[in-house]
Every structure is written in structure tokens, then in C-alpha cells.
Amino acid sequence: MNIIEKPLKIGKIKIPNRIFLAPMVDVTDAAYREICRSAGAGMSYIEMLNIGAILHTNPKTQNLMKTFENEYPKAIQITGKSVEEFKDVLPFLKNYDLIDLNCGCPSIRTIDNESGASLLKDPEKIVMIIKMLKKTKKTVTAKIRLGYKNNNVLEIAKAIEKAGADALTVHARLAWHSNKIPADWEWIKRVKESVKIPVIGNGDIDSPEKAELMCNIADGAMIARAAIGNPFLFKQIFHYSKTRKDMPFNFKENLSYFQEYLRLIKKYDIIDLPRAKYIGTNFFRNIKGASQMRQKLMTCRSYEDISDTVEGFSKANP
Ligand SMILES: Cc1cc2nc3c(=O)[nH]c(=O)nc-3n(C[C@H](O)[C@H](O)[C@H](O)COP(=O)(O)O)c2cc1C
Fold first, then answer.
1. Which residues of the chain have pLDDT under 70?
2. Is 48 close to ligand 1, i.e. is its CB under 6 Å away?
């Protein structure tokens, strides 16, 4: 069996392979996770939710907290600023199998709220939060960056392991680094050598070759941007790992994932027009008429509009 297809145990959870869809705000709702899992991703998470939003139970957050039919594991990613907040949110997490602590989000709003990547400044607080989450007896993981201003990833990783976390994802950049700065996989290697819990590597994986390379450095490969509008990448990864040959990109097959996405947001009653349009535009890249099609999608005013537009394109381009 090749490395990518090897199951991975994280706490009580068995993941069928080593390829992870990253949590992504505005992307990884229940429908998007389902299409990526059907394309081969072994694991996925609900996008980062701030504890404040969960406690206020607004309808948008409730939609985001939905899981797809037979989703396993049901994984939620949360962030917050104080141990007390994490204690308050525990009753809301009963339906999930895995809780991932976000210590990596660098958005101004999140940093101002002293959560996300801001937690990297205080390893002791991370330890207390992990211990609080472990009271649920569920599988608990954390997603970190290399540090806030300075690299303290080894200290953080060891502290997270000691606190009882079941796995760790490392996005190999500092909090202030933009995605233009290459992720430094050398540090993923060093973290892997420093802890015994599974380490998932993340940053700049956009091809089957890079996914496989990461699986040889770490226990799993997590993919974010390259999977937006491109669930077909997961198929390509598994094809490559089985055959050592590249599977050419198939626009039509990839687009059929978006058509399925549209069907699923209706099924799960999670239609969010701006999100569906944004996700849809990402499926139209590098093809003739792409920019026209993206503009058309952005002017859609209803779910039916989006659905008909995509259907029309598909029929006109057999
Ligand atoms: C649109 C978008 C939304 C994101 N939302 C989250 C999130 O909710 N939680 C999180 O841990 N990281 C989030 N990230 C960061 C990614 O999970 C990932 O760590 C980062 O993009 C690097 O991986 P990549 O090079 O494969 O894109 C987001 C990234 C993008 C592009």
C-alpha cells in the first residue's frame, strides 16, 4: 500500500487516508466537504468558528455547524480568547467527534479578539485550552503556524502534545507571513522529529507530487487553496499515487462536483448565495470564456439562476 492510502489513527478516530481538506472560511461548508470527500479527501473540518458566534447561535453559524449525511468524523474547528469561553462552549460541541483548536488565523478581526494566531504568543494558554477541550473525552487536535512574530513552533508543538492533544497540523509560515512567502517545510520535518503525536503538514501543496512529498515528511498532507474550485485534485492525487502517472485535468468532471455542490446546499438547506457564487467562480479558471462565465455567475440573483447558468454552460460545451 502506498503512503497516501495508508489509514491514520488520530485519537479514537481512524482516517482512511493521508489527504486532508483544510478548514476554510467561506468554503468548507457541509456540501463542499461532502464533494471533496467523495473525490477522495480522507478528512475535512467545519471552517473556523469563533466561540462567540457559536454561543450566540445565529442562523448563519448554525448552518455552518451542520454536517453532511453520514459524515465521519464530524470535525469542528473553533477559536476563542479565554479558557472560560472554551468551557462555556463545550455543551455546543456534543455532536462532533473531533475538536480542532485554531491557533493560526491571522485575520485582523481574529487577532483583535486575541484568538486564532494570537494564541501562539501564549503557549501556556494553549495548554489550558487543550486540557479544557479534553474534558469532553473527544479527539482534540490543534492547527498552528510556526509562530506569531518569531518562530517558537517546537516549544508550541511540545506543549500541545504534553497537554494531551491527539494530533497537530502545522501551517509552515509565521502569522505575519503572506501566502506569497513559501511555506518552510523544513520546520514541519523538525516538528515531526520533536513529537510523537501525528503531525499533518500544510502549506503550498497544489499537486499530487507535493502531496506525496508531504506524506513522506509528515503523517498527512493538508490542502487549502488548491482545493478551492478543484475537488478533482483529490482524484489526481490518488491516481498518481496508484499509477505514478499524471491524470490530466478534466474540466467537465470537475464542474460536475460544483453541480453536486449546488444540489447538496439545497438538500441541507444551507443556501448562501454570495458563497455559492464565490465557490462557483473558482470552478471556472483556465478555460475559454472563463472570465465571461465568472461575471455571469456574479450577477445571479437566485439559487435557480446559478443552477441554470451552470447547466447552460455545460450543455453549450459538451
Ligand atoms: C479562503 C481561505 C479560508 C481559510 N480559512 C481557514 C480556517 O477557517 N481555518 C484555518 O485553520 N485555516 C484557514 N485558512 C488557512 C488554510 O487552512 C491553510 O492553512 C493555508 O491556506 C495554507 O495552505 P495552502 O497553501 O494549501 O493554501 C484559510 C485559507 C483560505 C485561502
1. none
2. yes
